[in-house]
Amino acid sequence: MYTIASKTVDLGGFVGLRLNEHALHSWDVEVTVDRSAGLAPEPTAVIVDGLELVVRFTGKPTGTEHRVAVRTADPTRHLVISFGTDSVSLDSGDPDDEPDLELQAEAFVRLVYGRLDPDHTPAVSGPADLDALRRAFPGP
pLDDT for 74-103, tens place per residue? Predict the structure, then answer.
């Protein structure tokens, strides 16, 4: 067992966090030569399903309680970011809910990790304030 950000994770969870680091740091290098680079699809599918701990660790409360429904593509996921007065969490969302933010899963991962700056943002849609979300996820 390993303790990360006050949470105990098993070996699989620990390896998953290392996969996240490898995928994001690989993107950090690749984007220096290809401004349109995204995260590789294979790790993205795994990373997006394990973002709950990262969101709790890196997310910054915005001062107001609200929720942001997120729909990702490649892979398709329905998620909800919940902002409390002193916490941020990520949960599964309802596929029938109208999303506040729609984007590629790799872009959502980069958002949570503080790597979705305006110069490296693919097409997104929905009424969510992307700049406010960037401030809520400044990166680790």
Answer: 999 999 999 999 999 999 999 999 999 999
Range of the domain at 30: 2-120
Q: Torsion over CA of 88, 3, 79 and 106, rounded to 10 degrees?
A: 110
3-class DSSP assignment, residue 121 = coil
List, for residues 4-61, the tens digit of each pLDDT value: 555 676 777 667 667 777 777 787 788 788 888 888 888 898 889 989 988 998 899 9
Closest CA to 38 of 107, 114, 102, 119: 107
Please state the φ and ψ torsions of residue 20, each to the nearest 5 degrees: -55, -50
Token pair, residue 25, equals 């740091």
Domain total for the chain? 1
